[in-house]
Structures are given as structure tokens and as C-alpha cells.
Design goal:
The protein is of the alpha/beta class. Helix content is about 55%, strand content about 10%. The chain has helices at about 1-50, 55-80, 85-100, 125-135, 135-140, 145-150, 165-185, 200-225, 245-270, 280-295, 300-325, 330-355, 365-390, 395-410, 420-440, 450-455, 465-485, 490-515, 570-580, 615-620, 630-635, 645-655, 680-690, 710-720, and strands at about 515-520, 525-530, 540-545, 545-550, 585-590, 605-610, 640-645, 660-665, 690-700, 725-730, 740-745. Strand 2 (about 525-530) and strand 3 (about 540-545) form a beta hairpin. Helix 7 runs antiparallel to helix 10 and helix 11 packs antiparallel against helix 12. The radius of gyration is 29 Å and the shape is globular. It starts with a helix and ends in a 42-residue tail after the last strand.
Length: about 800
């Protein structure tokens, strides 16, 4: 009998090991499918709507909501059905997207007819499109993590008493999928295609594999009675927290998940505002976010958690100062600061969740409440904040909320009987200190020599060499209220209110010091209009941190095109060539800005602006701010604005107004902030040339602080056999001008006219680079053109 038992133990151990490997592999596969789908679907939407970080934020809201739906299904089915029936129900749900192949549930695809081309706030359009196009398979896959962990508790495995470690394995699959998409999948495989080797068909194959693995997991429930197996000691050191569930505890879970989720979207928006709305820059913060889940739920030590919580507040104070001071750092330094902050705060929040996890019988409810917090964070950033705030202030505000929650713990924020009076007085004192000190901080130190030595300003298009002086004065202004916040670190409520007051008042202080006269926010970003007090100065429009145009305040220079468009620069030379041609000029401009290019319109000329942001249109045509468009109309030029994404609107004009063709198309949408990559692809150039007359010219503004767009355009020109010229414009002697790089493309070299022999224009600097590749709607390699 002893020999028979000895032979049985290795067999039982092998079975338990196989069960653990099966569940781990299934969870890994489901998570990988889930998080490969997110950037893949986001990439499908970008050419339909336009390149903006808000597209990704809206996608994240849908994915979080679908995840919540999946977790709710897992929780409800666990509570109401026996394991065997629950497994059978889930296998049927898994089979539905496979059975719906004739209805295009798989392979994945989006229906562009559900979008209205960006004519209004497209949030509801994007959510509807995602729900109809990819909602069913995403919803089914999202149930994998909580459902299989609950099944695992019934397998009899010794680790089943505390199955939360499987959540780390699930998030490992998510993180590897996210990092693998922009580095391995996106550069090598097209989204769609006639063959089977595409991203969408491979995802469908992966879904079929997940269905098979889930069926095998279900068999372990039917083969082994629930509760059987090796008992686990009740005093296991890794057992989850024992206290019962009350609403304060549940709300604390939701609040921690809310803070981490909102911080993820806030940091992503803040960073991609100055780069590009592409999957690469979406997945990095999301991968960091998932890494914190892996670390937190992989046996997270309390001592290490306390250390992370301790450094969170100092890091938040430093990052808040860097944001308000606008230090002229290189972009990779900025990215490191904000990614580091995301890592620390998310790790602290998720660590607090992991250490407070309930017993396995509450597992599905625990994950459901975490998902509720994630959805609320996404809704706050994507829907509420753009309507309530005129800046990206929600990002630092959530930093403050996270610090207050972490320092308060489950005990709450300390709202004792006498705390309310201090809760009112503290933020008032902090705000008053900031306002009064900003009025008295008059120290002016010339650090321009240091700026030159470090070459910090050389990358900042149109900026003067005084950023260090400005930052020193910002330090003098913000140091006292931030120091007050540090002194309140032992009182979470007062700390949070003091920092929130500083952030809310900071916008008014900065607006006064920078001569800002208007700040507004739309789905597509934050617009700031500033006007110099000096009558010889300018009115400027900035989108995020990028200059989008300026106009002189001097009456004699009001009609003079400035910034990137001065008459002595590349654009002025282009219009000099166009003026030699007989007849009126028909031009299309992608990107309205301040409407500066209307200054080149003569009587009888026709100008069509393609602009995705209604707010930009309203500003450019408001004579209180800029008069370029109004002056052009007064001269007898015809101006029209096509609201919506340029590619969608251009395609509509091509189909419905075939007589409308242009002498020149100017694509002015790449100057430093989130570049719409879909406007610089093979498909986009084909559309532009379809809209050009026989001798038409295409002008591309490729000035960019962080990306080398010359090789991208060179490869596209080589691919389409277009003639090309490049000029890096010089602003010497032009007051109010900004250096700008423009590329001209034409069907034949002779279409350039006299510009072909102008020594300021050259084709030699536009040599193709094979490592960059030819950008298409399915492919773009951002890493190869990043200015490291």
C-alpha cells in the first residue's frame, strides 16, 4: 500500500504541475491577446479620425469599460452558477465570435461609416465604432483573468488558497504583448491584407488557441471534484488579508484604482502632446502600468511598499515644479521623469491593493471593483476633464490625490471634528501665498550663457535664450507653497487640498506673467493665445507647447506673414513662383493655425483650409485675435474651411466635387506636437496628388523638434517617383520669423519652375534611407526617425 501511495504522489504532483502550467499559459495567452488588440485597433482608427492623444484616451475608456463588463460577467456567473455550468456557459461565449465569422466579428475590423470625420466631438462616435466592431471578442477575452483564477481555486492545487499570483502572470503576458507590438509586430506585419500573415488574422488564430486552452481548463473542473486535493495550511504566510468587506474598504480599492488609471492616461496625454499619437508612445506607459501590477501581485513585501510610498510625495513635488517651470529639457529627460513618476505612483497604488486583497471567495468582486476604479479614471480623463478644465490640470491633480490616498491608507483622510476648519484654511493660505509671492518675486538672473553652453535651447523652435532665467523665477514663485505642502505630509487631507489649490491658482499666475489672453480646450488639445504688452510685439497661438502662428501688433506689419511663413523664406519663394502662373490660384491648406497662409491670397484666389479642430477655426476667424483671414476676404479672396480630418474631407471633395482641384496643397500639420502620422503615408500622398492639377505642387512642412521627417518624405518620394526639393529656411533679418523646413513634391522636375534652379532649394538632402522604410497606413517606424 505504501508503494502504491508513493507511486501515486509523483503522478499527483505531475498532474498538479500540469494544471498550474495550463492555467498560467491560458492566462498569459488571454492577456497577450487583450493587450495586442488595444494598440492594433487604435492604429486602425487613427487614419479615420486624426492623430491626437485624445483618440487613445477614448479608446482606453472603451477598453476599460469592456474589461469592467467582462469582470462583471465573471463575478455574476461565479455567484449564480456551479463551476461546471459556469464553464459550459463560458465555452459557449467563447465560441460566439468564431461562429460569427460571416458577420466579420473575426478577423477584427472597424467600420469607418460610423465616424463623422471629426466634425464634432467624436467621443461617442469612437465608442460606438469600437463597441460594434471589436466589442464582442474583446469582452469575451477580458473575462479570462478573474474567471480562470476562480476556477483555479477549485482545482485542489496547493497554491489555490491564494491564487492572486496568477494575476502577475496575466499581466506579464499583457506587458510583453504591448512591448512586442511596436517593436516586433507593427514593423513586420500589415494590419490587413489578402494573405493570412497579417495582424488581424494572426489575432484570430490566437483567439482560437485561447478557446482550446480554456476548454482544457474547464476539463480540470469536471475531472476533479471541487475542494479536493492537498490541503493548504491555514496560517500560510502569503494568505490574503482576512478582514471582512465593508464599503470603506471597497471605496478605498476603487479610489486607488482610479488614481492609477487616471495617472496612466494623464501621463500618456502629456507626453504624446509633444510627440506623436502612435502606438509606440501609447504602449510604453501602459506597459509600465502593467509592470507595477506584476510586481505588486507577485508577493509584494510590505517593507518595500512603505519605501515606495515614502518617495512618492517628493517625486510628485519635483515633477509638479518641472511642469510649472517649463524647464527646457530634452524630450527623453521629460519622458523619463514622467514615466518614473507613473511607475512609482502606480506601484504604490497597486501595492496597496495587493496587500489589502481579500480571501479567494471575494476574488471576482475584488477585480470587479478595481475595474470600476479603472473605468472611472478613464472617464474622468477622456470625458469629464476636457469639459471642466481648460488645461491638462487633471494630470497633476491626480498625482496629488494619489499621494493623499497613499498616506491616508484605509484609515481615511482624517476628517476629525476640528479638521474641517483647517481643510478650508490650508488651501486658502497656499493659494494666497502663491499669488502674493508671484507679485513680489522680481529677481532676474541672466543664465543665458549656461543655456548656450548646454545647448538646451537649440532644439526649441522659435524660443529665445532665456529659459533658465524664467525657470529661476518660477522656482522663486512656487518654492514657498510647495514647501508648505511638504510640511503637511503627515496630514493627507491638508496636503492634498494645499497642492490642489496651488495647481488651480498656478494657471492664473502663469497666464498673467506670460501675457496670456485666452486659454481653451477641445478634444484635440489645449489652445493658448498670448499678446505682448509692447505695441511692437505679437499675438501668438500655441497648441500645447508648440507655436502655431503669430501676428504683429504694428499696424504697418499686420498683413505680413510671420513665424514659419515669412516672405523671404521657403513659403514666400513658393508663392512667388505661383504668382508667375496665369489666372487665380486654387490652394488647399491642411492645418489652419492662425490662418497666416491666407496672407498670400490675391483677389480671385481660392483657399480651402482643412482643419479638424473647430476651436482652431473659431480663433483664426476671430478678428479680436488674428486678422489674416479677414484681410484676405477684404482683398477679394475666397476662403472656406472644411471641418474634419483632412484625409476624410479631401476624399469627400474628390468624390463629390471632381471639378475642385488645386494648384498647390500645403500640409502644415507636423510642427512638433502630436503629428498625425496618417497624413504622411503612401496612401495620403496618392490622395494629395489626385487632388492636384497637372502642374500642381505639394508642400510639406516638416519642422519638428523630436522627429527627423526628411528620410520619411524621401522614401515616400522615391516610392511614388515624385520630384522633390528641400529647404531649411533661414530667418536672418526677419523679425518675428521662425526657422522652418519645407519640402516640395511634384510629378515632374519642370513643374517646380524657377525653383528647380534656385540654389536655396536642393534635392541632395532628401536621400532615401532603407532603415526608415516607406510609411503606409499599416506601417511606420517611429524609432528610426526619433532624434535621440
Amino acid at each position: 500500500m505504501l508503494r502504491r501511495a508513493a507511486r501515486g504522489r509523483p503522478r499527483e504532483d505531475s498532474r498538479l504541475t500540469a494544471v498550474l502550467l495550463l492555467y498560467t499559459l491560458t492566462l498569459f495567452t488571454g492577456a497577450a491577446l487583450l493587450f495586442v488588440m488595444q494598440p492594433m485597433v487604435g492604429k486602425m482608427i487613427l487614419p479615420l479620425l486624426g492623430g491626437t492623444p485624445a483618440v487613445w484616451s477614448t479608446c482606453m475608456v472603451f477598453f476599460q469599460a469592456a474589461l469592467l463588463g467582462g469582470y462583471a460577467y465573471a463575478h455574476a456567473s461565479t455567484a449564480r452558477l456551479r463551476p461546471s455550468r459556469q464553464a459550459l456557459l463560458h465555452l459557449v461565449a467563447l465560441a460566439l465570435p468564431l461562429a460569427a465569422l460571416p458577420l466579420a466579428a473575426l478577423p477584427l475590423a472597424v467600420n469607418p461609416q460610423l465616424l463623422r470625420g471629426g466634425e464634432t466631438n467624436p467621443v461617442l462616435d469612437v465608442l460606438t465604432l469600437l463597441a460594434v466592431s471589436v466589442g464582442p471578442p474583446f469582452l469575451v477575452v477580458s473575462t479570462t483573468a478573474p474567471l480562470l483564477q476562480q476556477w483555479f481555486t477549485r482545482t485542489g492545487h496547493p497554491a489555490a488558497r491564494d491564487p492572486y499570483f496568477l494575476y502577475a502572470a496575466s499581466n506579464l503576458g499583457s506587458m510583453l504583448a504591448l512591448l512586442g507590438y511596436p517593436t516586433l509586430v507593427e514593423p513586420r506585419l500589415p494590419l490587413h491584407g489578402p494573405g493570412w500573415l497579417t495582424q488581424t488574422t494572426l489575432w484570430s488564430a490566437g483567439y482560437a488557441v485561447l478557446a482550446v486552452l480554456t476548454a482544457l481548463c474547464a476539463l480540470t473542473l469536471w475531472w476533479k471534484p471541487a475542494g479536493a486535493g492537498t490541503p493548504v495550511p491555514k496560517d500560510s504566510a502569503n494568505a490574503p488579508a482576512a478582514p471582512g468587506l465593508g464599503w470603506p474598504r471597497r471605496l478605498h480599492w476603487i479610489a486607488l484604482a482610479f488614481a492609477a488609471s487616471s495617472l496612466l492616461l494623464g501621463s500618456t496625454t502629456y507626453i504624446t502632446t509633444d510627440l506623436a499619437a502612435v502606438p509606440l508612445l501609447w504602449v510604453l506607459p501602459l506597459a509600465i502600468y502593467l509592470l507595477t501590477f506584476i510586481l505588486a501581485f507577485g508577493r509584494w513585501p510590505r517593507a518595500l511598499h512603505r519605501a515606495v510610498v515614502a518617495i512618492a510625495l517628493p517625486l510628485v513635488l519635483v515633477v509638479i515644479f518641472l511642469m510649472v517651470a517649463e524647464l527646457p529639457e530634452r524630450i527623453w529627460v521629460t519622458v523619463l521623469w514622467h514615466f518614473g513618476l507613473l511607475f512609482v505612483i502606480a506601484l504604490a497604488c497597486h501595492g496597496a491593493l495587493a496587500l489589502d486583497r481579500p480571501a479567494p471567495r471575494h476574488l471576482t468582486e475584488f477585480y470587479l471593483l478595481i475595474s470600476v476604479g479603472g473605468v472611472l479614471g478613464g472617464l474622468f480623463n477622456a470625458l469629464v476633464a476636457p469639459l471642466v478644465f481648460s488645461s491638462l490640470i487633471e494630470y497633476p491633480l491626480v498625482m496629488v490625490l494619489a499621494c493623499a490616498l497613499l498616506r491616508a491608507g484605509r484609515a481615511g483622510l482624517g476628517l476629525g471634528p476640528g479638521a474641517w476648519r483647517a481643510a478650508v484654511l490650508v488651501p486658502l493660505v497656499a493659494a494666497l501665498a502663491l499669488v502674493l509671492y508671484s507679485e513680489s518675486a522680481t529677481l532676474r538672473v541672466d543664465f543665458s550663457f549656461l543655456a548656450r553652453a548646454l545647448e538646451w535651447s537649440s532644439e526649441r523652435v522659435g524660443e529665445s535664450l532665456d529659459p533658465i532665467e524664467r525657470s529661476v523665477n518660477k522656482l522663486l514663485i512656487y518654492a514657498p507653497p510647495l514647501a508648505l505642502a511638504w510640511l503637511l505630509r503627515s496630514r493627507p487631507l491638508h496636503l492634498g487640498l494645499a497642492l490642489a489649490a496651488v495647481l488651480l491658482v498656478a494657471g492664473f499666475v502663469d497666464a498673467r506673467s506670460s501675457d496670456q489672453i485666452r486659454q481653451s480646450r477641445s478634444f484635440f488639445g489645449v489652445l493658448r493665445i498670448s499678446r505682448d504688452r509692447d505695441a511692437t510685439g505679437y499675438t501668438e497661438l500655441r497648441h500645447g507647447t508648440t507655436l502655431h502662428g503669430r501676428q504683429s501688433l504694428e499696424p504697418a506689419r499686420r498683413a505680413e506673414p510671420l513665424s514659419y511663413y515669412q516672405r523671404t523664406g521657403p513659403i514666400g519663394q513658393l508663392f512667388t513662383e505661383l504668382d508667375r502662373r496665369p489666372g487665380a490660384v486654387w490652394m488647399a491648406v491642411v492645418g489652419l493655425g492662425t490662418g497666416t497662409l491666407a496672407a498670400y491670397a490675391r483677389p480671385g484666389d481660392r483657399v480651402t483650409f482643412y482643419e479638424i479642430d473647430r476651436l482652431v477655426r473659431d480663433v483664426a476667424f476671430d478678428s479680436r485675435y488674428f486678422t489674416y483671414t479677414g484681410d484676405a476676404r477684404d482683398r477679394g479672396a475666397s476662403l472656406r474651411v472644411e471641418l474634419g480630418d483632412a484625409r476624410i474631407r479631401l476624399d469627400a471633395v474628390r468624390r463629390h466635387r471632381p471639378e475642385e482641384r488645386y494648384d498647390v496643397i500645403l500640409v502644415d500639420a507636423f510642427t512638433s506636437d502630436a503629428i498625425p502620422v496618417h497624413l504622411l503615408t503612401r496612401e495620403a500622398l496618392r490622395l494629395y496628388f489626385d487632388m492636384l492639377r497637372p502642374r500642381g505642387l505639394l508642400a510639406l512642412h516638416i519642422s519638428n523638434r523630436h522627429l527627423r521627417l526628411e528620410p520619411v518624405v524621401a522614401n515616400l518620394a522615391e516610392d511614388g517617383r515624385y520630384a522633390r526639393l528641400l529647404q531649411h529656411g533661414d530667418t536672418a533679418g526677419v523679425r518675428g520669423g521662425v526657422e522652418a523646413s519645407w519640402v516640395l513634391l511634384a510629378r515632374r522636375p519642370e513643374d517646380f519652375g524657377d525653383l528647380a534652379s534656385d540654389s536655396r532649394w536642393t534635392a541632395a538632402a532628401l536621400d532615401p534611407e532603407p532603415t526608415v522604410g516607406t510609411w503606409t497606413d499599416d506601417f511606420h517606424n517611429l524609432l528610426s526617425v526619433f532624434k535621440w
